[in-house]
Amino acid sequence: MAAWVPHVGSYRRRMPVSLARMYENALDWEHLPWLHQSSFSDIECIDAGDWGWRAKATLANTNPSQLPAKSLWHKALGKSLRHQPWQLLKFSSRLIAQSLAAKRGGKEVLLELRLDRERKRWITTTLAGVGAGTEIWTHVIEHDAEDIEVVVDFFVPNIPQPMAAPLGRYYQNLYHRLYDEDQEMMETRQQALDKVKSPQKKDSTTVSLGDIEELKAKLPITVSLAGRDWQLREHQNHIAVHATLCPHMLGPLDQGHTSAEGTVRCPWHGYEFSLATGENLSGQRCKLPKPPETKIENGQVTLVI
Ligand code: FES
Ligand SMILES: [Fe+2]
Fold first, then answer.
1. Among 268, 281, 285, 287, which is best to mutate for testing ligand 1, by the most ligand atoms less than 8 A from CB?
2. Range of the domain at 279
3. How does pLDDT run across 263-282, given as a tens digit for each residue?
C-alpha cells in the first residue's frame, strides 16, 4: 500500500473447497453481476490474465438492510463530531459527493484484483468511483486438500476512527453473504468436475418416459442418458431437452431461467443458449451438446440419442 489506509475490520471463514477452486473464483470477474446480483448489476472487463483482472463494475442498488444499522452510524457520528470534527467534515463531504454521483447514475467503480500465488493472497483495490482507495486483502490458509480458510482484511481510506467499527461490520456481513454464494458455486463446480471425470455408463441410448400428459405434469425433470444428465422442461407446449451442465464452467443449467424466445440462461455467468440449436447467444464459443431426440408415438414419449 502506498499510503497508510486504516484497517476497519476482518472476516474469517473456513470452507470445504480446494485452493484451485478458490483461485479460480477470485480470478473469475465474470460471475460478479450474476452470482452476486444484490451487490453488482454489470461488469466490463478491461484486462484479465493469470495475474488477476481489472474491470469496470456497476454496483447494484444497495439494500438498506445491508448498511450498518442507523443507530450505529448515529452513535459513531456523534462521537466523531465531538472528537474529530474536521475529519468528519471531510468524510461527510466525500459521502455527499459520492451519493450525488450515484444519483446521477455514477455507480461505476473501477476494480482491480491482483493475485499473488506465492503469498497465497489477493488484493482487491477500488481504483476509482465510490470508495476509491479501498483495499481488501484476502489470505488463504490451506488446512487440507479441500479445506481452506480465508482471512479477509478491509482497509478504507479517510475514515474517521469512530466510523471504522460500523463500516467493518458492514463489510463482514457483506463478505459473509458473498462467500455463502461463492462457496455454493465452488462446491457445485467441484462435484460436477468429479462427476465428469469419473467414468460413466454410456450404454443406454434410449429411455421410455411414458404417457405424454403424465410426463408434462411432472416437468421439469432430469433424465440420465448416454452418460449425461438432461433436463426436460415444458416450453410453449413442447418438451424442451438440454444438458443440465453448462458447457462454460459446468454451471447448473437446470436451474437456469428460460425465456419465451426459447433460450436458457446460466445462473453463474449469464451465458444464454438457444434451446433449439444449443448455440451460445451471448457470443462465447462454447455451445450446448446436441440433446436427445424426443419421439412421441401413440402418446408415449421416448428419448433417443
Ligand atoms: S458456468 Fe459460466 S455461464 Fe454457465
Ligand atoms: Fe464471488
1. 268
2. 206-304
3. 999 999 999 999 999 999 99
